[in-house]
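User: Structure please.
Assistant: Input sequence and predicted structure:
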Amino acid sequence: MVGRWFRRVAAVLIVVLTAGAAPGAQRVPGWMTDIQAGSAVRVTMKTGEAFDAIWMGPDGERAVFERFDPHETISVSPDLVRRVRTRRGSSSSNAAQMAELGLVAGVFGAFALIGLMLRGS
């Protein structure tokens, strides 16, 4: 009985935590989904132009960046972008990912502890 309960809870957690993997995400490049919004990035366009910016996130089928110099918001087609890299020293996206990983580990640890307590009684 406890095993079924754990499987149901695990299935619900997987559905909730992977809600961002929508079918629409298959049409965009990996960097649009892998880099967290608000991260400082270095963008290289296919024309050879490169600039530093903040990745604002996707807007439909377009990529939105906030350029550092000149200070402006640009929206470009992902097909025009050659490469996007996170800038060194920008740990905000890493900190957010580690916090999310810690939350997931804490939830699974709590369920494991509850399961051990129920098994012992």
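The chain has three helices and five strands.
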